[in-house]
Amino acid sequence: MNIREKIGGISSGVWLSIVTCFMFFLYAPLELLFTNQDEFWFDAYTLTPIMFVVFAIMAVCCSFLFVVVRLWGHEKFRLVLLLFFIIFLCSYIQGNWLAGGLPALDGTPIDWGLYTAERIKSIVLWVAVLAIVVTAFIKLKKDNFEKIVKVISICMLLMFGVTLLTLAVENRGFDKKPSLAVTSRELFEVSEDRNFIILLLDAVDAMRLEDLMQADEAYCEIFEDFTFYDNMVGAYPFTKHSISYILTGHWFENEMEYRDYEAEAYETSPLLEMLKDTGYDLNLYSTEVLLDVDGKEQFDNIVPNEKGVSDKWAFARWQMLMTGFKYAPFDLKKFSFVNPNAFRELKISPEGEPLYTLSNRDFYDSVLEEEISRAEQKCFKFIHIDGAHVPYIYDENVNESADATYDTSLQACMTITKAYLEKLKDSGVYDNSVIIVMADHGYNDEMHDKGGQMRQNPIFFVKGIQEKHDFQVSGAPVSFEDLQTAYKRLLDGMDSSRIFDWKEGDSRERRFLVYEYKQEDPIIEFIQPGDARDTDIMYETGNVYTRE
After folding, report:
1. What global pTM score does this model have?
2. What is the pLDDT of residues 316-362, one digit of tens each?
3. Distance separating alpha carbons of residues 517 and 454, to the nearest angstrom
4. How far is CA 55 from CA 37, 43, 148, in A?
5. CA 307/CA 273 separation, integer angstroms
């Protein structure tokens, strides 16, 4: 038999190579993008060319493998085809039907021992598919098996294409995201007239920080002139929705797509309107805002930017790891852990201006090293840093440590806050500044797996213009719902003890909306009828908000 005759029957292997590589390197990344549009700065026009190259290379390599094996012998070709087909089927089922029980990739170290049921499901799947396909291989005529593999491969390829097209239409996958970037521009530019500064320390829980402050009074001294509202109830358990609510006061209840909500919320924010009307320059330093919606052009540090990836290989590598986390057998998933900030770090920086990052270390180094500059107009700064968010990597001196915990992360937050406040004092703008040190949501690492409602008690420290007094604590039953009124009173010159209508000892019911991480449908309404820290008394109202 000549070479042409030998390779003439490899079409089943070629089609199987194409559909398998298409699933891993194009379908999986695009499906993830289309169903999580709000989580990524890039669009399909950035992702597709990079991953198409990976797909093409891998499809050619796999097809070449089948050619080589076919030249080696027809029986060996069929055995490799059998193995490849089993891997394809198991991976497809694993990624599309057995991914619901996987842990969230939010930076929390994963205890794989807690997912025994998922491991058993994965093992059963691979054993069952292996048994069924091998039996079919033995029972069928060998040429028929090759034909079946070819037909299934072509049909699956068509199905993947139709599915991607449907997802793109349903999730605006064909929309181009505008080329904007959050830069560090004017991070330390302040006004001698007035400043309104919000320093947001991610995931700092009021009860946990209060325990540290009671154990060490030095932490209380950091907040001289401030009032600590320790009975604060937030709005949502996670960052994206919380920040939008903090800045706009508009609830998101699944009444529209999130990007449409955020565009409308920022355009009609009472806080931002008050600041613009009173002559403030606006700066928003956070990577947890959408840059493909209207309303961001009002922030001076959010600038046009060339859209692109700084390291295409790293981009492709992270995409493949995310695919592996979803599609790989359970025991291989631990090798596919994805850094949630990985893709942000690969965005091309505007020429001459660094991108803003949430890194505690980066912000702390900037506080220590950069000089304060003066602005002609009044300044609003919303500065969001990692704070005590997982993964825990900082000791109390903001150095990376393998022994870091939630408590050392809280201590690092206090070190950073102290340095920043001292910088403002040294520059002479502390007294003429409204300063809020707060969190987007609370956190309890011991309760992490028991539901988002365990994040309802974020820190909230506040100081008004020219406010001078010892550190004080208020147990008033306040809520993020009160923030827009509080902002107005602070802008009007009120001190921190008078910005809320509620006083210590008052009784009140406060709203808190709960959803699963990266899945805001459904949103469940909870009420806190008592102390913000008491999760046992929180109850569901029965109001559930779903996307129609």
Report:
1. 0.89
2. 999 999 999 999 998 888 888 666 667 888 888 887 788 999 999 99
3. 13
4. 22, 18, 23
5. 30
Query: For residue 260, what are the contacts with CB-CB under 8 A and spacing of at least 6?
Result: 293
Element (H, E) at 540: strand 539-545
Angle at 547 between CA 543 and CA 548, to 5 degrees: 105
At residue 37, the pLDDT reads 84
Report the range of poorest mean pLDDT among 154-158, 244-248, 321-325, 427-431: 321-325
Asked whether 269 and 246 are in contact (CB, 8 A), the reply is no
Amino acid type, 319:
Q
**What pLDDT, on the 0 to 100 scale, is given for residue 449?**
43
Pairing of strands 232-233, 478-479: parallel
**How would DSSP label each residue in 419-479?**
HHHHHHHHHT-STTEEEEEE-SS---GGGGGG-GGGG--B-EEEE-TT-----EEE---EE
- H/E run at residue 272: helix 270-277
Q: How far apart are the first and last CA of the chain?
A: 62
User: Residue 152 is which amino acid?
Assistant: I
- In sequence order, the 6+-apart residues with CB closer than 8 A to the CB of 161 are none
Residue 126: its H or E element:
helix 116-139
- Beta partners for residue 423, in sequence order: none
- 448 pLDDT band, cuts 50/70/90, is very low
Helix (H, G, I), strand (E, B) or coil at 512: strand
Average pLDDT over residues 162-166: 97
Write out the two tokens for 369: 């090293």
Partnered with residue 360 across adjacent β-strands are none
Query: pLDDT averaged over the chain?
Result: 91
pLDDT of residue 345: 81
Structure tokens at 524: 């469940």
* pLDDT at residue number 451: 45
Compute the average pLDDT of residues 51-70: 96
Element (H, E) at 523: strand 519-528
Tell me the CA distances in angstroms from 359 to 347, 355, 384, one per residue in order.
16, 11, 9
Output 129 or 516, whichever has higher pLDDT.
129
Token pair for residue 32?
């993830």
**Residue 414 and residue 515: Cα distance in Å, rounded?**
29
Residue 409 reports pLDDT greater than 90: yes
Reported as a single tens digit per residue, the pLDDT across 200-253 is 999 999 999 999 999 999 999 999 999 999 999 999 999 999 999 999 999 999
The CA distance from 380 to 298, in Å, is: 12
Whether 437 and 417 have beta carbons less than 8 Å apart is answered as yes
Other Cβ atoms closer than 10 A to 13: 27
Task: Kindly list the distances between the CA atom of residue 262 and the CA atoms of 7, 249, 253, 265, 271, in Å, as whole numbers in the listed order.
Answer: 56, 11, 12, 5, 15
Tokens of 509: 């019911």
Give the separation between CA 262 and CA 259, rounded to whole angstroms: 5
CB 243 within 8 A of CB 288: yes
Cβ within 8 Å of residue 272, ≥6 positions away: 247, 248, 266, 282, 298
